[in-house]
């Protein structure tokens, strides 16, 4: 197996003990569900993927990525579910 050179780390350990790798990241053209949003937000939060790379790779706005990261920090992954937005929305 051949690995491409990368400028950053290939894996990061998350506080809950899971290991997140570059292979765990969703495809660039993906259907956004809560688990994929959480994976991208955690990758940025823990340094696996730079913020600029995430914005360019997934075509996200800064506000969108910030909202994902802040929702996970404040309420956990459930806050990213579309059916739960009103429960966790900031007034």
From TrEMBL:
InterPro entries: DUF1153, Trp_repressor/repl_initiator, WH-like_DNA-bd_sf
Pfam family, one: DUF1153
SUPFAM superfamilies recorded: TrpR-like (SSF48295)
Domain of life, source organism: Bacteria
Protein name as it appears in the record: DUF1153 domain-containing protein
